[in-house]
Amino acid sequence: MYKLLIRPILFWFDPEEVHYFTFSLIRFLNRIPGFSSIFKSLYEINDKRLEREVFGLKFKNPVGLAAGFDKDAKLYQELSNLGFGFIEIGTLTPKGQEGNPKKRLFRLKEDSAIINRMGFNNGGVQEAVERLKKNKGVLIGGNIGKNKLTPNEEATTDYEICFDALYDYVDYFVVNVSSPNTPNLRALQDKEPLTALLQTLQNKNVTKPKQKPILLKIAPDLTDEQLLDIIDIVAVTKIAGVIATNTTISREGLQSVNKSEMGGLSGKPLTQRSTEVIRFLSEKSNKAFPIIGVGGIHSPEDALEKLEAGASLIQLYTGFIYEGPALVKSINKAVLNRMK
Known about the structure:
Layout lengths: L1 H9 L4 H17 L3 H9 L8 E3 L2 E3 L3 E3 L10 H5 L5 E7 L12 E4 L4 E4 L8 H8 L7 E5 L10 H12 L5 E5 L14 H15 L8 E5 L5 H14 L3 E4 L19 E4 L3 H14 L6 E4 L5 H10 L3 E4 L1 H6 L2 H13 L2
Parallel strand pairs: 3-4, 3-13, 4-7, 7-8, 8-9, 9-10, 10-12, 12-13
Antiparallel strand pairs: 1-2, 5-6, 6-11
Helix pairs in contact: 6-7, 7-8, 8-9, 9-10, 10-12
């Protein structure tokens, strides 16, 4: 029903406006008595065989929602009713910011893809914390970044502020230095500044009563040499794992009229490359750390391919928009069927 009826209607309208409309609709429906139970019955699979223990946390299933969809932690409770095993919020910054000028979100329907140049638009970490205080059992990842006007030399302070503010309210952290939409942010992926940033956060982490897993989200555009650097950095800093991958700046093979728009590309064009990065990291590190696989997952087969390449968990974003919430259930069914 989603692909035949709902999606064609939604895709007539501006994608950013549709996003906010969909948020309001999901929130409204979940406030109607009984509707949250209906969503759960439609999309949730409760089966112990789907549970995963990764970096010390128990996930009820391996399918999560990637950062960027619920930036400000406004809808994580309702989204969890659609069958996700975990929800990643953010990217959050210390101060609220508008992000880049609109129009900044583009559908590439012929390519089953999206280009965004949102620019870490969010209300600031403290606003999200207030909403997270009301969490009722949803496993939450906190994706953190720096403000646009913060120079790279002072970026570590921004990440520390977000880490301290979110520490009591998220289950794991994701350090985002790989978005192409904040000026010079990707320069923080270089070995020296990235090692320093992650080590600072780990030093802060070990002073806490209970350490929280810290993960690094990387770009799909890294070379093999840079990916080997990532493996070394994980070993040196002892962070918990890697999320592979963020959006790409590549435009290879695109057909859509919007293919020349600036920003990060997500969706089907990223399927193969993100899987290659997962497999490279898994094999070259000898499976030394967990990987969350994300990028171009539009079918159960895409998800299984990521898992077989070495991912411990996966996340959806663009595939969720194009395929609808039934994708979560179909992936979990496929994971169960693979066990037979």
